[in-house]
Amino acid sequence: MRRTVFNEDHEAFRETIRAFIEAEVVPVYDEWFAAGQAPRDFYYKLGELGVFGINVPEEFGGAGLDTHKFEAVLYEETARAGVQFGGSGVHVLLALPYLKMLATEDQKKRYLPKFVSGEEMWALAMTEPGTGSDVAGMKTTAKLSEDGTHYVLNGAKTFITGGVHADRVIVCARTSAPSAEDRRFGISLFAVDTKSEGYSIGRKLDKLGLRTSDTAELAFVDVKVPVEDLLGEEGKGFSYLGHNLASERWGIAFGAYAQAKAAIRFAQQYVTDRTVFGKPVASFQNTKFELAACQAEVDAAEAVADRALEALDAGELTPAEAASAKLFCTEVAHRVIDRCLQLHGGYGYMNEYPIARLYADNRVNRIYGGTSEIMKTIIAKSMGL
């Protein structure tokens, strides 16, 4: 089946990214893996390559496009090479939509040129210890000062990917207590400068997978946030968060599909080269059947991921459709990667093989951005159940 989702511009970008990965990432990736993060200067290289500016308006240094298709190419090419670009995915997929949607012209002039160059890396801080998917249950507060010039931020966040290297973090905090009628009332968003006094990075979390993306705990003790760094209107934060969930869940779905596709590539290469009982592992009927079954699942996941991509670019991807795509693609990836690891035998359990890292990296796809159980709830609700 011929794909129609990409054009010549996307394929030219793919060639550039593939060459960049081979030259700049693959030779040093083991060092990143051991260190548990990509080096800070790597993000300047991505900025120079233009990766951060694709969807940023031209007047702020970007390419002025409005599409997620170049991000899709990035998902496919990083998965194909068995690498990750550190916390840069959060910078583009999670933080940028809020800046484009909520930032004033003055804020865009201050934020976006540095965003594009990689001079300021961004992260998003929603989750708190003990709240998980219950965003409305957050305890972090931001109280307006008596003179009205700044907010005073207090609280803590956890599981913040990009949190170690971030220069600015979009922090969700309560500016008002929840109302009796609406627990979601009173949440606001702030673009917090990580150099602010009272802002601190706690532990860099020791994750099962995604080892090269820095994920941290953050703490705020009387952090002064200028009123000029409030994003959007006070108290409307929860509705803003919901607005961008569809694109976030599409990203997880497409990334999972790309990982499953890469797993087949790694397994096919391994079973072709590996010999047992005097024959290539690829020659056994079980191997052929397993890979054929995996390929059929990935073909279906590709169709779902592509359809969601087209709907997202058209501004038509509904919350239920995004949830369905995320649920299907992440569950397919879970099954496919597990079967491809099995075909590697004992070597599949060794971190020196990309399939082992892929297995660990993939596991979080069914958790973050909303668990598979939350996705089922959203889908069921859309069905009138």
Through-space gap between termini? 35 Å
How large is the count of helical segments?
12
Helix/strand structural class = alpha+beta
Average pLDDT works out at: 95
Record field, number of beta strands: 10
What order do the SSEs take from the amino end to the carboxyl end, as H and E? HHHHHHEEEEEEEEHHEEHHHH
Largest sheet: 4 strands, mixed
Question: Key features?
Answer:
385 residues, alpha+beta, 4-stranded mixed beta sheet, 4-stranded antiparallel beta sheet, 12 helices, 15% strand, AcylCoA_DH/ox_N_sf, oxidoreductase, Acyl-CoA dehydrogenase family protein
Question: Could you characterize what this model shows?
Answer:
By secondary structure, the chain is α+β, with helices and mostly antiparallel strands. Helix content is 48%, strand content 15%. It contains 12 helices and 10 strands. The protein has a 4-stranded mixed sheet with strand order 1-4-5-8, covered by helices on one side. A 4-stranded antiparallel sheet has the order 2-3-7-6, with no helix packed on it. The protein has a two-stranded antiparallel ribbon with strand order 9-10. Strand 9 and strand 10 (279-280) form a beta hairpin. The radius of gyration is 21 Å and the shape is globular. The two termini are 35 Å apart. The model has no long low-confidence stretch (mean pLDDT 95).
